């Protein structure tokens, strides 16, 4: 059934199915095309008539995902006019429901907030809340740094503008603009940290959920970001000194931009390095900092925090690489020193001692999980607690028997949004038993929804979930047998 809603900027037409209203392709900014390409987002101007929000949101232009072999493929129409929201709500009334804002992951280069993987209707129905999926610019179109073209972080500015739009309009969808929860996974979690660390307007945000944030992947220095930008221009055959450089870039086909972006990614690829060439960068005003995750934790100022990782994060990246099965211990040590620094070699030696019967590639995966995910995430949680935030920590460690990826990066996503048909062929699920998947999903969803409503993920379907503190680092292990445990999270 088609329905309509009046917003501050115009009228929308959406659909109502199974008790949930959904509006897709809702524009929160002017299309970043032509003269607006490589520029900060511009708020959407009011429109006349009724805007059709019954068709799926488009997908930001992107090359193939580096995790397609793990997560599977998703469908969607790519279009540069992608600054859109997907909004799901149980009621178009004045009930003032909590609002859950979803920032997708994908290494700042792939993904979308409105695809079937992240359909918010089940969460909206189960939790009686408004769920908003956000699209933002990706890759070079969203994070290029080049003098006279872009200062970077355009995708982050997109997210900040989306938050402004949500605060202004969500009451029309039955939501409370003063009761927002920001939820992000991987790059989406890093984005949440950057929004706080960069002092963007996060008014109304009471809670944050950070799933597998790659907090050990610091934002690029201005120098490194400019170097990637130079390589990008070189791949396009453009001079960085051209007076009309931005104009030239604005006229190029999107396919040519994506091809140059992929060429830069291939040229800078290093075995074991999860950092994309186009991502958050440190701005001139310190929008992000070297220890930005700690700055973000301090900036939370009492915002409730639910944060966690999967047990084998880096398996998603390394276990699909044939080299992992044959790489020598000496090669791994060299890679660790080159990418993660000399101090990380000591961690590698400890991992080797703890797991003497594993091959070197697995040791490398454990080291990356520790350096990029587990250790900095624990630091974030500890600092957030110190600064007055109620903080809850989890490790998702269910392991599908038929998957070589174990409890890998992204594995918790089907359990947060629900194991729908969209995830049916995801290799990381390893053909897991449907009833078991649904049971774990019920436990995870009830905890997430409890946190959104009350700032506390405790639920009858889990053991008592206590806060994470420096003195008592309590961690909820989420699996088919959930349990709480005190642990230091020093090494995997």
TrEMBL record:
GO MF entries:
cholinesterase activity
Report the active site residues.
Answer: 186, 313, 409
Which residues are in the Carboxylesterase type B domain? 3-485
Q: What class of enzyme is it?
A: hydrolase
Q: Which UniProt keywords apply?
A: Disulfide bond, Hydrolase
Top-rank taxon, per record:
Bacteria
User: InterPro entries in the record, alphabetically?
Assistant: AB_hydrolase_fold, AChE-related_enzymes, CarbesteraseB, Carboxylesterase_B_AS, Cholinesterase
**EC annotation?**
3.1.1.-
Q: Which Pfam families does the annotation name?
A: COesterase
Question: In which family does this protein belong, per the annotation?
Answer: Belongs to the type-B carboxylesterase/lipase family.
Entry protein name: Carboxylic ester hydrolase
